[in-house]
Amino acid sequence: MSGRPKPRRAARFCRSHSEEASDSDSLNVLPSEHGNPDASGLTQSWKIVISTVSILTLLLIGLGNHMWLKETEFPQKSRQFYALIAEYGSRLYNYQARLRTPKEQVELLKKESQTLENNFREILFLIEQIDVLKALLRDMQDGLRNYSWNVDRDEDQEPLEATDEVREMSNLVNYVLKKLREDQVQMADYALKSAGASVIEAGTSDSYKNNKAKLYWHGIGFLTYEMPPDIILQPDVHPGKCWAFPGSQGHALIKLARKITPTAITMEHISEKVSPSGNISSAPKEFSVYGISKQCEGEEIFLGQFVYNKTGSTVQTFKLQHDVSESLLCVKLKILSNWGHPKYTCLYRFRVHGTPGEYP
């Protein structure tokens, strides 16, 4: 009994020592796993900390940039910047266009604009006066009717007639309206383009080449523009709407709207008051008219020679000096001189009057 407890104590002592050894070994192993650095010299925990800090820093920088872009409204500022550049580009183009325009031409345009404005004011004044006269005439007629009705309501009594004053005023208003609407010449124009007349260019002088009259595209002149000869057969008589030929002598061959026996011609030009240059030295002075027999290919028949008076009326009609016995389809206008312009002569409108014959 007394000998058995000794081995048990020895076993307990050995187990306790073996457990302490194992505990000491485990403690030695743990620091080696968490404390050994890698090849870069950083432990695993420090790597995690540095990665977390880097990610947070990038997120903060991105958030700050987003708030800055939102506060500064960068897209709107860029649009304003581009709009400002476009505005200054447009101003620069307009300034260059003004530099290309000669000063003399600018002055002429100003003078023409002032003249047209004055004419427009005069027309408005006349229209107002006509409206006033018409209103006054209506009031007087209404007054006469009311007076007639109040004086005597007898059905058999005839209404009072208008007085001489009312009748005279009515005639005046009608005369003014008629003069505003009707043509000044009061004769048919057989050289009118809209009626079928035309200019035969093969028998007509060349047009004047003006380098200043150009069509522009983005400030670059690419096409010389000139009025065609048939502009003289149209009623649109405004400054610049004329056919110009070089020098003081030229001619135009005109095919009429139908065959006629010509009796008179009319030459029309603008007045000095509306001329952009302040004068009409390019107007025709001496000119002659010929009839062409045999469908515009025969001999020339002299009809007369005339002088356009630049100080007279803008529309001047001349009776032909020589009669013809046959109907003509074509006439030739020959300009012999102008009123002093050294470079060109301008024709605004030419008309031919007569007795209609058979259709061609």
Describe the overall structure:
- There is one protein chain.
- Strands 1, 5, 6, 7, 8, 9 and 11 form a 7-stranded antiparallel β-sheet that branches. A two-stranded antiparallel ribbon has the order 2-3.
- It has helices at about 5-35, 45-70, 75-100, 105-150, 165-180, 295, and strands at about 200, 215, 220-225, 245, 250-270, 285-290, 300-305, 315-320, 330-335, 345, 350-355.
- Helices cover about 45% and strands about 20% of the residues.
- β2 and β3 (about 220-225) form a beta hairpin.
- Residues about 1-15, about 15-35, about 155-160 and about 215-225 have low confidence and may be disordered.
- It has about 350 residues and is of the alpha+beta class.
- α4 packs antiparallel against α5.
Short description:
The protein has 360 residues and is α+β, with helices and mostly antiparallel strands.
List key phrases describing it.
alpha+beta, 360 residues, 44% helix, disordered N terminus, two-stranded antiparallel ribbon, 6 helices
* Arithmetic mean of pLDDT: 75
Quantity of strands, as a count: 11
Separate helix tally: 6
Strand content: 15-25%
Our measurement of the CA-to-CA distance between the termini, rounded to an integer number of angstroms, reads 168 Å
- The helix-strand sequence is HHHHHEEEEEEHEEEEE
Structural class: alpha+beta
Radius of gyration, in angstroms, nearest whole number: 52 Å
Which outline best applies?
elongated
Question: What fraction, in percent, of the residue positions are helical?
Answer: 40-55%
Unreliable runs: 1-14, 16-35, 155-161, 213-223
Largest sheet: 7 strands, antiparallel
